[in-house]
Amino acid sequence: MKTVSFALIGDIHYPEHKLATSSVDIKDKGISSGIVSRIAPNKLKKVSDEITRQLTKNNSIRAVLLCGDLTSKGNIEGYRECLQYLRSVLNLSNKEFWQDKHLHVVPGNHDISRHSITAGTDIFKKFEGIRQAWLDIDRTEMQPDRVRVSDIEDPEKSKTRIFSVNSCVGCGEQRYLPESIRSELQALLESYSASSGADTAFDLVGEQLDTPVIDEEHISDISESIRELQKLSDIPVLLAHHGLLPQIIPRLQIYSELLNCGTVRFALTSLGRSIIYCHGHVHADPVEIISQPQHGPGKIIIISAPLLIDGFNVINLIFSEDGVALGCEVVPIRLEHGCIVEKDAIRIPLLTQRHIMPTKSILRDAFDATNSTAQRFKQISESLSSQGSDERLISNALLELEWMGLVEIDNRGEIPIHWQIRRIAP
Ligand SMILES: [Fe+2]
Question: Is the full-model pTM beyond 0.90?
């Protein structure tokens, strides 16, 4: 089995979160702040230390995906501060460290400088500040006006193709007053603003529209590039700031969802294959799957990252020895009560057809050696080793059969000698 992993890092909102600490139930208001600081760790530091640890120790991690919202309310100084923080956490200056890894980043709606938006000008101009901020730390990954693509390749076998796409193209744009009464309304608003002050006037009638949108040309570019992938087991991974479904908590806001998310869902499901779609924005971590049966067995696996101060996800793509994409595991790494906790992986099969009898002889033999009563790994391996298969081949075959929906393995996280295997297909 081969694993290609990447770290999915959600909204950072560095200016407001850089000093956030784990909660302490302080009943004594007179207690020394020095004592409080010793029992309430800085949340961002705790999570960042774990990211650095994972990147250093886990050789399977081949990419880091940043979902945007590095800053808040268009604060470009906060954005630049966040880049200095990321430079340290992700070891971004170390070219050797990044030689075999990929970094992807997209704009978030909070990263946009709304002051730089002028009607009728280049719609990508508002991203110039953040693009320059990345260039200033010698990184070219922020490319808001195009789809950026990189491939993680295992020669002649599997390929993971990562796309970063800007879903904030429409964010911050203006909404216009009705033309037939525009001048009258404008005079009324200017008069109110002059007497009450600009801030009060803005609170009353002001609008800052997010209008998230993915450029139609970018959707076409992605579809075309996915069609070029030759094998069904080549896995496309998309990174955007916004999701493709409304958030779980009702949001009462004009244009809060991706305006053309229906088009994106249609375009992606019509490709008839499994696609991973990663995003942030909702400050929560649902994993959702969309399929449109009229388009065949393809599905979009939508993975949301939580706020970074709450943790991040490691996503494992599991391939068989011969390069077949078997499954996707989402491993939530969370900060709970000041401690880093690795939660149980959420396992999603990637094979578009499950419960199909295997064709490879080792898989057929391993399946034949199982039955509906749980057996220890040793029992199965003894019956197969006489046919010349070693333990590694047998354990890989059983793991593959599990992704195919044919067997179930208890204690999978342990070494195979502790496994209990049960056939679940007839
Ligand atoms: Fe956010």
Answer: yes
